[in-house]
């Protein structure tokens, strides 16, 4: 199973989800999962994970590594089993990049906990704790479903 988390700039929410799911998967022996993240914009290309995301991951003893933000490419649609987006704008932007979602691979993060809500972007809210809480709950539910 190949999971790609997607947010706007790939420095806050999607890398947070990537490292959370990797941590959860490791704890239950799911080494078969391929987990990564990307963004829909080019604004943060090459930047490392946001310091607020790193701080929140450290607070929960979740390992992470240095990385570079990247944008999803049009030709990646067939490379992933599921694209987990953080909000409705990410979903629309990803559908624009791909041209469509014929296989229904694009799903909102909070749908795994039965919600249609967006994951708040801490770049704007400053509330990395709330974002982590939503992502952690949704990642646990996602892992149970795959």
TrEMBL record:
Gene3D superfamilies: 3.40.50.2300. InterPro entries: LMW_PTPase, Ptyr_pPase, Ptyr_pPase_sf, Tyr_phospatase_low_mol_wt. This is protein-tyrosine-phosphatase. The keyword Repeat does not apply. SMART domains: LMWPc (SM00226). The keyword Hydrolase applies. Its EC number is 3.1.3.48.
């Amino acid at each position: 199973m190949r999971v790609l988390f997607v947010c706007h700039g790939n420095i806050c929410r999607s890398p947070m989800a990537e490292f959370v799911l990797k941590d959860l998967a490791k704890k239950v022996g799911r080494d078969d999962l391929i987990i990564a993240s990307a963004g829909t914009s080019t604004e943060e290309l090459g930047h490392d994970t946001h310091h607020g995301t790193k701080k929140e991951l450290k607070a929960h003893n979740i390992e992470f590594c240095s990385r570079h933000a990247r944008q999803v490419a049009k030709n990646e649609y067939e490379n992933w089993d599921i694209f987990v987006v953080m909000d409705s704008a990410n979903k629309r932007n990803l559908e624009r990049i791909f041209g469509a979602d014929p296989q229904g691979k694009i799903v909102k993060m909070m749908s795994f906990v039965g919600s249609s809500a967006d994951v708040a972007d801490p770049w704007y809210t400053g509330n990395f704790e709330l974002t982590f809480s939503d992502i952690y709950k949704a990642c646990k539910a996602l892992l149970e479903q795959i």
